[in-house]
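Justification of resources, computational component.

The compute hours requested in this renewal are based largely on the per-chain cost of generating structure records like the one below. Each record pairs the submitted sequence with a full structure-token output. That output is archived, and it is also reused by downstream analysis tasks.
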Amino acid sequence: MNRWLAAACPQSRRACTWLAGLLLAAPVAAGDVVVVDPGGGPGAMLLSQAIAAAADGDTILLRPGDYWEGGGNNVVIEGKGLAILADSDAHGVVTRGLTIRELPAGSTILLRGLTFGEAGSPVGSENRLSFRTSEGSIWVEDCTSNGRAGYGTFVGGVLAVTFPGGPGLAVMSSDAAVFQRCTFAAGNGFDAQPPFFAGSGGHGADVRSSHATFQGCTLTGTDGGHGDSSGLLADGGSGLFVNDLFAGGDEPALVHVQGCALSGGDAGDEAGDDGGHGVAVSFTPSLVTVRDSTMVPGSGGPLGTPGQAEFVTEGAIATWTPPALSVSVPAPLREGDASTFTVVGNPGDLVTLWMAAWPGYIELPGRFGAFVLDPLTLVAPIGLGLLGPGGTLTIPFTLPNLPDPFLDGLAFPIQGVASGIDGTALGGATMLVWLDGSL
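The structure output for this chain reads:
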């Protein structure tokens, strides 16, 4: 056994085998790493140029800088997969929005440690983070997206129009979307300012004709605007809104929610304004499964209707009892970095970690969710044993050198599985990002 491997492994032969398998899988998921470093200054154009020049499979690493620059329309990524990551000293850096469309099968979009849009700003595209018509894998981890705030404007220089708050996230006609430990907050409804009427709040996440998994996320619908809404209604937005109208997809949505907090916004203060829902499924035969999560409705306005924790006009919301399992590892990490896997779940559950060279997406209803690893590149799992009384397990490790000196970096998805008295359930996932130490 290599000296680094003996030092990095927990004291278990199975753990060592699992990490050794990681090296064997490594060359499959390689790509170039492009560093964007504006030196703390303006970086929006540099990021846009890097995205345009990057090839499918490349990684873009953001150093500290101003990638918002007062806001603007979304940067578009079309027809290719990329990883865009905030470096360790730039975590949470605010960027302009992203629109990802036509992601081909076999490609992956990875976003980690980023904040899309400045909270409360009415500037930019309606959907600050948008995925549309994607056959490939979408993986978003440790990110925040703030929906565009509602606003009033004149159309044609004459007609006063109020636009509602935008969603924190929009996913349409996408086959495999995974969101881990993210915050999606809609834009607030516009407060009446004559000649503009008050407007509705936005939805935390708007999902249509897609397969999506949310784990450990916060989805917040926002309040309707105050003041005169003139019968147009200033409703509160829902935490999660599933509606297949205008999605362009050919099948209903299937959405899994684990360990999340979902809340609807309060209505405006005019008669007839309605509160937002925790989860709303309407005008679609879609299914939303909710596990170990809170759903809080918003209040209604005068003569309006309060929101509901679960609102369904068609389709279904299924609530499951097994506690959620969370798995995380910091990112990015470089050669030689010491770090830890952190596992949080139900005390007494037996936990297993699985890893693959690529993400995947397989619906497993009997296991309470989706298996988000590629089954063709799986590495033998590692059994971590039973979670103790606190329900938290940390596994220290040290990253070795990359297996090929010509590699800039690799990324591996890892998912946890928990077995307990409620059966075996799929848990959360995390992406291990392994970079060259010189970057």
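DSSP finds three helices and 35 strands in the chain. The chain has two domains: 32-149+160-320, 333-435.
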